[in-house]
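Students often ask what a holo structure prediction actually looks like on paper. The answer is less mysterious than it sounds. You provide the chain, you provide the ligand, and the output is a string of discrete structure tokens encoding the 3D arrangement of the protein together with adenosine-5'-diphosphate.
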Amino acid sequence: MATNITWHLFCLTPSFSASAVTPEERVRLTGQKGCTIWLTGLSASGKSTIAVALESALLQLQKHAALLDGDNVRFGLNKDLGFSQKDREENIRRIGEVSKLFASFSTVAITAFISPYKADRATARKLHEEGNLPFVEVYVKASLESVEKRDPKGLYKKARAGIIKDFTGISAPYEAPENPEIEIDTETTSVEDAVKTIVKYLEDKKYI
Ligand code: ADP
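The corresponding structure tokens follow.
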């Protein structure tokens, strides 16, 4: 192993062109295979809460992890997009591409977006499969009744009042996954147990 590290540094000196790191070498050198944890579910189902806790747990285990959520994507990369079906589609397409890049760099990419349409999630999955990268769909499940009760940002109230149009679960559809790799019912599962379930899945599959 030490010989290989020397060889890579040697290749990066100006008189030699750097050789590309193969996916296999990357896994060996970083000690983890990248993948994407794709959290999907209604607004307020618990995606961001679980995603933040999961990222922190993975980093504490010394694993590379990166969280893509509304805060860092909707206000940056995708700030030109709204909530029409076409824009939602493009939003998810870009998140699929970016998470794939992170996964290809041996990082556990965690995405926390409603991603309501099956076809869009299938496109993100296909992108990963084409790159031989694991795509772990996690259905963060909670009934409409319970998310409306939680309503931490008052969005359901506004949607019911017609102030927010095309709101998932109220005036726009949510297509639940049929065969997610993991399903977490946040009405009966604590955040801590949700994180444990996902970390165990990653360990069992030897992705981390
Ligand atoms: P989303 O990202 O799906 O819109 P958030 O994580 O922002 O959802 O909000 C979910 C809300 O539900 C938070 O206020 C959180 O504290 C609460 N909550 C209650 N129980 C759970 C649970 N078991 N898992 C995740 N969130 C929960």
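The longest strand covers residues 135-141.
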